[in-house]
Design a protein that fits this description.
single chain, 258 residues, mainly alpha, 66% helix
Length: 258
Amino acid sequence: MANKKSLVPSESPATGKAKAKPAAKRRIPQQERGHKTIEVILQATGEEIARGGLAKLTTKRIAEAAGMSVGGLYEYFPNKEAVIHALASQWLERVKDGVAAVHPTKTGCVDLIRYLGMVYEAVRPQYQQVSGVSVLISLLASVPELKALERQIDLQVNALLTDAISYLLPYVGKDQCSAVARTLTILDHYLLIESNMRDPAHAAMFDMHHRICQHALASHFILMNEQARLAAASAEPQSDPQPVSWPAPRPEAPPDVT
């Protein structure tokens, strides 16, 4: 990729020659039909990327795969860079939506280990079922416009995870919750890439190792939260007899690795 300021070379609708254009949608749909058309275009783009990679991707191929004319495609997107940008944005937003959907305040989950497992399962389909996702992920790391977009969504995802972990571990500091959220995001992301794209033959092993790491980290913070809770309780003035404080329930057992 010689010029990182553009995703891939774009074509002029009139001449078919390469021409740099801004990566933005040309028309914002106001009706449900328009939104469905956008969805069809993005789905077709992902399938074309999965089939032939970026090198063979053209607006003509996208339009044909979407069952529309090139002119119809240009009503929504000025070039293929804009389509790719929208596809990457959609993928990132769906990852974020998956994390938001399993927040403890929405699911009623009260166990950190179970919650982290729910997060992993919520985002896993975005790595398994999205056409062309491996190419999109590589672009997120190499194209400045997409890298900035990823950073923006990443901050939102980390905020969601931090809030959920703080909710489940109220005696652990917010900065520590944010740090563990970031650690788990990195762990989830790269293990999902390994198990679904680079080495699917060992997916079961990667999943088992993921659970072990997740369990160890979560157990450490559960213990930290309980210790801080007991310290806070002992520091409070106790003029009247206090009711018995039962210990917090033990987290679920770690995975069997034998």
